[in-house]
Amino acid sequence: MQLVVGRIGKPHGIRGDVTVDVRTDDVETRFAPGAALATDPAAAGPLTVDTARWHSGRLVVRFAGVSDRNRAEELRGTWLVIDSSEILPSSDPDTFHDQQLVGLEVVTTAGERIGTVSEVLHHAQELLVVDTEHGDRLVPFVSAIVPEVDVEGGRLVVDPPEGLFD
Q1: pTM recorded for the entire structure
Q2: How many CB atoms sit inside 10 A of residue 115's CB?
Q3: Nearest Cα to 149, choosing from 116, 106, 120, 111?
């Protein structure tokens, strides 16, 4: 299974640098010089990190062989991925990788089936996209609303505030 660690954004300058929307907590390892990243679409890569630096809160990366703005623009929108076997389990029992949550059945504390986690959004706060019979619902991924995550059991328990699933 492939996991997204970033998405290539717009070119930065004229020498092939690109901005990267980071989707990993391990930026130093994933974007270290020499690190090879698979891509989606696969035809765009693999890409090898030449340099990486932060500029105004954004990661700016130069990939080997990408030496001008035109080639950088061609990469725009490309997903940077790694194999899930490269991810080490977290030592924190309250930390989960997106792929562990997607597909979990969502039930209330009373046992009522709500739906299935279809996506995890990373905004100011993490949100779970839950596919219900009434369409997608966004659930804040906080302990007050999601008191239990049972990855091995394939379920996530929610204690929704009134109106969340209406």
Answers
A1: 0.62
A2: 20
A3: 106
